Amino acid sequence: MRVKVKNIPGDIRLTDYCAKHFPILGSRSAAKKAINGGNVFVNNRRSFETDLVSNGDVIVLKKPKRRNVKIENIPIDVDIIFQDEYLVVANKPAGIAVNGNRNKTLENIIAKIANRSFEEDALDQPVAAHRIDVPTKGLVILAKTKSALISINKAFQNNQVQKAYIAVVHGDLSGEGRIETPIDGKSAITEYKSLSVVPSKVFGHLTMLRLALITGRTHQLRIHLKEKRHLIVGDKQYAGPQRTILGKGLFLCSCELSLKHPKTNKQLKFEIEPPNRFSRLLEREGNRFRKE
């Protein structure tokens, strides 16, 4: 990538200029990293982050050499719902992290099974643009290119990505409504709609809900439903003394994602069905109640 500096009122720091005029970098810290990595040249000279640039200077951003990422094989099946040169949408299994300092993560699994991007700004491996909790199953977006990652991150920051979950909760939460209890002093909004309610001999009632995230606070759904006295089934972290079903996992699944494609701007929508154990639980509890 080559840019000729023009229309600036005076000298400007190279780091600031690169962050603004090379969208592929996306931030000042990324610009600094590119400069220190020897990938930015000013007037055919390797640059330094303290350099100043003036009108007429020619700045060249070279693509860094691509690393071969070595990742161990992980014996976990992950379904890829969609992929192209820019992004991957995967169905994360419950029980594994999206990313982090460990080998068994969704990012590492996807790095082994996804098609490699040949775009100019391709990342060494797909990078998650957001996260869902370890015990939560469902849809996660991973970017294959630097520009796609920047675009999707901005979409999340601007609430332009729609996410919806299916959950089974304790109690009768019929109808629909909105929970607006702040979390850690920050605005947090969840919309819910009942899909089915069944009586339960042990738990009184169980309700299957569709949950739409209007904001995206950490553990937002789990905290909101606990505070509303409708704990998500299997949520041992927030159960406290409340009895729930343990050993069957958390009954929460990220089932819907909608966003604009970072390259084509086309609206994308992805949907999956919740695990069969969700409906089986409601059927079993309803049958037990009727038999009694």
Summarize the structure.
This protein is of the alpha+beta class and 292 residues long. Helices cover 22% and strands 31% of the residues.
Structural descriptors:
3 domains; four-stranded antiparallel beta sheet; Pseudouridine synthase; ten-stranded mixed beta sheet; alpha+beta; 292 residues
Account of the 3D structure:
It is a single chain. This protein has 292 residues and is of the alpha+beta class. The chain folds into three domains: 2-61, Structural Genomics Hypothetical 15.5 Kd Protein In mrcA-pckA Intergenic Region, Chain A (Roll); 79-158, Pseudouridine synthase; 162-255 and 276-291, Pseudouridine synthase, CATH 3.30.2350.10. The chain is 22% helix and 31% strand. The chain has seven helices and 16 strands. The chain has helices at residues 14-21, 28-36, 106-113, 146-157, 220-227, 236-239, 276-291, and strands spanning 2-4, 12-13, 40-42, 45-46, 52-53, 58-61, 79-83, 87-92, 122-128, 137-145, 162-170, 176-179, 190-200, 204-213, 252-260, 267-271. A hairpin with a 6-residue loop joins strand 15 and strand 16 (267-271). Helix 1 (14-21) packs across helix 2 (28-36).
Summarize the topology.
Layout: E1 2-4, E2 12-13, H1 14-21, H2 28-36, E3 40-42, E4 45-46, E5 52-53, E6 58-61, E7 79-83, E8 87-92, H3 106-113, E9 122-128, E10 137-145, H4 146-157, E11 162-170, E12 176-179, E13 190-200, E14 204-213, H5 220-227, H6 236-239, E15 252-260, E16 267-271, H7 276-291
Parallel strand pairs: 10-15
Antiparallel strand pairs: 1-6, 2-5, 3-4, 3-6, 7-8, 8-10, 9-10, 11-14, 11-15, 12-13, 13-14, 15-16
